[in-house]
UniProtKB/TrEMBL annotation:
The keyword DNA damage does not apply. It comes from Acidovorax bellezanensis. Belongs to the guanylate kinase family. This is Guanylate kinase. It comes from the Bacteria. Its EC number is 2.7.4.8. The lineage of its organism: Bacteria, Pseudomonadati, Pseudomonadota, Betaproteobacteria, Burkholderiales. CDD domains: GMPK.
Amino acid sequence: MQHPGNLFVVAAPSGAGKSSLVKALRELDAHVSPSVSHTTRAPRGQEKHGREYFFASEQEFDAMVANNAFVEWANVHGKRYGTSKRALADRLAGGADVLLEIDYQGALQVKQAFPEAVLIFILPPSWEELRARLENRGEDSPEVIELRLKNASEEMAQVGKFDFVIINELFETALFDLKAIIHAQRLKYAAQRSARADTFASLNIT
Ligand SMILES: Nc1nc2c(ncn2[C@@H]2O[C@H](COP(=O)(O)OP(=O)(O)O)[C@@H](O)[C@H]2O)c(=O)[nH]1
Ligand SMILES: Nc1ncnc2c1ncn2[C@@H]1O[C@H](COP(=O)(O)OP(=O)(O)O)[C@@H](O)[C@H]1O
C-alpha cells in the first residue's frame, strides 16, 4: 500500500471566501484532492451532482447516517452535510493529500477521528465585508444571508480550536498563507517519515 496522504480541513463562515481559495489552490496544486460531500440542500445554479456535492434527499441522508456511512456530518444553516467514509478512505490510502471544506462541527469530529488532521479556519476581515461578499455573490436570498450572518458569530467563536487561522482580506495574500501551511505540513510529514525509515533501518526492521 502507498503511504497515506495528509488530511487538511478548511472551515469558515459562509461568504469568507473558502470555496474561492480552495479552488485557486487546486489550480496551483494538483496533489490536493477534494472530497465531495453529501448534502440535503438544493443545488445552486451551476452546481452538478457528484462535482460540488452529492445532492441527497432527507431519506437518503437518513439511510447513510443509519448505515454509519459518514466520517462526520452536521446540521449547517438548517441543512445536513456529511463526508462519507468512502470519499475519504480511498483517497487517503492512495497517498493523496485530501482537503475537506466543511463546517466547524464537522472539522472537530474529523480531528477526533484523525488527530493528525490539520485544521485551518478562514476569517473575513470584517462583518461589513462578510455581508458584502454574501450579497455580491448573489446566490442566496436575503433570508438565507441573514441566517448565515447570524450563524457566523457562533462559527467564528470556534477559531481557537483550529491549528491555523487565515484572514482573507487580500485574496492573493490569503492564498499564499494557505499554500504555506500545506507546504509546511508536507515537509513535516516527510521529515517524520524519513526519520522513521532511518530508525527502522538501524533496527533492521523492513
Ligand atoms: N460538517 C460538514 N459541513 C459541510 C460539508 N460540506 C459542506 N459543509 C459546510 O456547509 C456550509 C454550507 O455550505 P454551502 O451550502 O456549500 O455554502 P457556502 O457556505 O456558501 O459554501 C459550509 O460551512 C460548508 O463548509 C460536510 O461534508 N460536512
Ligand atoms: N479576498 C477577497 N476579496 C474580495 N472578495 C472575495 C475575496 N475572497 C472571496 N471573495 C468573494 O466573496 C464571495 C464569497 O466567496 P466564496 O468563496 O463563495 O465563500 P465561501 O465558500 O466561504 O462561502 C464570492 O463572490 C468571492 O468571489
